Structures are given as C-alpha cells and as structure tokens.
Amino acid sequence: MQGEGLNTKSSHRCLKAIKARLRNKKVLLVANDVDKIEQLEALGEEFSWFGHGSRVVITTQDRQLLSSWGVKSVYEVELLKCYEVRKLFRSEAFKQREVDPVGLEQS
What we know:
By secondary structure, the protein is mainly α. The protein is built from five helices and two strands; from the N terminus they run αβαβααα. It has one domain (24-101). It is 39% helix and 7% strand. Strands 1-2 form a two-stranded parallel ribbon. Helix 2 links the parallel strand 1 (28-31) and strand 2 (55-58). The model is unreliable at 1-8 (pLDDT under 50).
C-alpha cells in the first residue's frame, strides 16, 4: 500500500480505507509495541474482513493486555545475546557471515 496515497486525517477514515483495500485478502498484520487496549480496539473486535489464512501478530510487553483481548497463542521471545545481535546485523547489513573484527570495532 506504500505510495498509494492514503492521506486521510481521521484514523477512522484511514481504517475504513485499509479495510476496503484488504477485504477478503490474505494478510499478515503486525501491531508492534502495543501498550493500550484502544490500539487493538481501533482494529475492531473481530477480523472477519481479512481473508482466509490471515494472521495477526501483536508485539507488546504487557501480557495482561493480550489476555484481556482474548489472544489465544502467546509466544515469549528472549532477547538476543550481544554476539547474536552482531551476527544478525552482519548477515542483514553486509550479506555475509563473517566480517573483519577490526572493522566491526570501528563501527
């Protein structure tokens, strides 16, 4: 949807436009860093307008928020260790497995 000109001032109108474009399409919705129930309520109480096989991923630090919303499956993700962060960064940023340790220290 990027670049398609969703320039609405009202979040309600914006949500309505998103629903119209995604109606009955298989989607992956990621609601990142949710900390208020109102953020989830803005999406509506049910996601029936999504197509079959759609998934909703909610990231939050508030487990109670998830249970109050009726989330069925909760996965707790552990933080990466420092060396794992560097390895992931190298693989994504430089598309390589190994990098010169001297160059890494300078960055």
